[in-house]
Amino acid sequence: MTQTPPPSTNILWPRFWQMAVACFILAGLTGALYRFGLVLGLPWGLQLGNVRHAHSHLMYFSWTTPALMALIAARLPEILPVGWELRPRRFYLPISLAFLFGLAAYPFFLLYGYQPIALGAARLPLAAMIGTLNTVAWYGFIWAYLRTTWGAPRHLPLKFWDGAVVMMLLASLGGWGLAISGRLGGSSLFVNQALTHLFLDLFAEGWLVLGVLGLAYATQADRAKHAAAPYALKLLLLGLPVAFLLTIPVGLVPPLVRGVGSIGGLLVGVGLLLQVWLLRPRQTAWTPWHFPLAFLALRALMSLTLTLPQLARWTERMNLRISYLHWLLLGFVTLGLVAAALEQWPHRPGIPWRPFSLSVGLIIVSLIPLTRLWPEPWAGVWAVWLAAIVALIPVLIAIPALRRP
Ligand code: HEM
């Protein structure tokens, strides 16, 4: 936001960033294909559900995850004491594997989704199997991060990243639980949903959000020293491991379990609002962090809303899930990564944050007519066309970031 780091000498970090942006472009085009598919139909026998899986998996595994890993690794030299042994090579393999497994699973998700594919006599769910290999990249990153930062003074950005890697580990347990319960069969709908949300929500709100917040504090030494900052982080660390219970459809969750989720959601909502307050840009001119923090505030209010079962049921009836999911993942995480990359590599081709942030705002607005908040007499096929066309804009704006410096 204010402090510009010295230009990094490691050429690989910005290369990894560009590869992640290329994956964002592919995943964004896949999202746009879904929207155009709704009005025009899909070519080559593709199915909407599979296109959606291909989109969301690539966004999670090969856009946000390796981009965040590369930004954390690139930032560590400024966070760790002078002369600290860094060995950036430790990070190369996990980040490369994140691209490899994410991209390798993509065509299988696109063509078959979670369906098993006949291979000789066997029928194997190849997309899910390759997708599961992503955990190797995550565990590799956790190892590299802990090995590199072990024994270093825990300044606030490191505390956020410690929390982020712990949440990634917990989320992966949900993923394994899902794979095992799928093989054993017979788990209740609630257990299935709980494991799915443990995996997806903790990955998004834990790993990605804490990771990006750590990047924001890394350039904000004055904010990181604020007395409230460590407490705001503790609220998130306490609330996140149970807040995922609130995104499971209300009717499936036993009331006592939902009560525990609500306490978690309250801690997370308040914790996120405190982060927004602490990190709010002081200057009156727009900065790349204004938009992501505004979206984070919106998402924090949604966490608070979901704590009340009546309001949570209302969000289900209004069909708001896709909207609030993108407030966080596109509005905060993606724009936050773009802001952090501009701070990290100010002299390299970046994503122009003003038009990009506006285009993300347009996508979020274009989702409203697709919800039940929109009056039915005004609804129509035009809304799907609008969402499809608008979906292409951030993708087009991101393309110049792929050019060579
Ligand atoms: C260019 C930006 C993006 C576009 C155009 C886009 C588009 C879409 C579309 C069309 C859907 C399906 C909606 C439906 O089912 O009605 C979707 C779902 C989803 N998207 Fe995105 N999205 C974008 C960015 C992101 C990002 C950055 C992430 C994550 C980091 C993400 C994660 C997801 C997830 C998790 C789902 C739900 C998948 C499911 O329910 O199976 N999206 N998106």
Note poorly predicted spans. none
Order of helices and strands: HHHEEHHHHHHHHHHHH
Write down the Rg. 21 Å
Q: Level of helix content?
A: over 70%
Main attributes of the structure:
mainly alpha, single chain, globular, 72% helix, two-stranded antiparallel ribbon, 15 helices
Explain this structure:
Helix content is 72%, strand content 1%. The protein is mainly α and 405 residues long. The mean pLDDT is 91. Helix 1 runs antiparallel to helix 15. It has helices at 12-40, 48-79, 89-112, 126-132, 134-149, 156-184, 189-218, 221-224, 229-243, 255-279, 290-306, 309-317, 321-344, 353-366, 381-398; strands spanning 117-119, 122-124. The structure holds protoporphyrin IX containing FE (HEM). The site of protoporphyrin IX containing FE (HEM) has 23 residues, from helix 1, helix 2, helix 13 and helix 15.
Summarize the structure.
With about 400 residues, the chain is mostly helical. It is built from 15 helices and two strands. It has helices spanning about 10-40, 50-80, 90-110, 125-130, 135-150, 155-185, 190-220, 220-225, 230-245, 255-280, 290-305, 310-315, 320-345, 355-365, 380-400; strands at about 115-120, 120-125.
